[in-house]
Amino acid sequence: MLSINKEAVRQQTSNQILKELKSPSFEDVIFYAIEQEGRAHDQFSRLSKKVKNKKAREILNKIAQEELEHLKELENLLDAGPDNFQIPKIEYHSFLEEKQLIDKITPDASVQEALLFAIGHEHATYNLYKDLAHASDSVEARDTFVKLSRMEIAHKIELENWYKQLCLQ
After folding, report:
1. Predicted local confidence at residue 85, as pLDDT
2. pTM score, two decimals?
3. How far apart are alpha carbons 41 and 22 in whole angstroms?
């Protein structure tokens, strides 16, 4: 069974992460997020090679490529600086319940399972950034984590739209 706990993204507590970052600056936070996106890319790439269902494999590979795009966006933010990182608040209510999300997939995963896994990953990353924002003492770090959490919600919405198109028709 291919298993990656959806809470693995949150394997360290917010306080441990912030302690490691030592009063994080905007750049520290963005470097951390780049690292997270890189891990997500690697995870989805590995899974795409192990899943037997061709369509599920294509979806996981596409998600891996999306994670690379997210990584590039974050790299561009380093050059742009904190004043140019504007993410509006997103009013969002998922049509999926958290208990529907899955934290592991097998090589026999369907498209639906692959998407529920990916949506769960984005949900966990959103929660991580939200927790880090709440735990941060630095205003700059807090604001950056809040904006990163909004980015993750936008990613989750995109995946949920794919889910609606591919699994609910």
Report:
1. 66
2. 0.79
3. 26
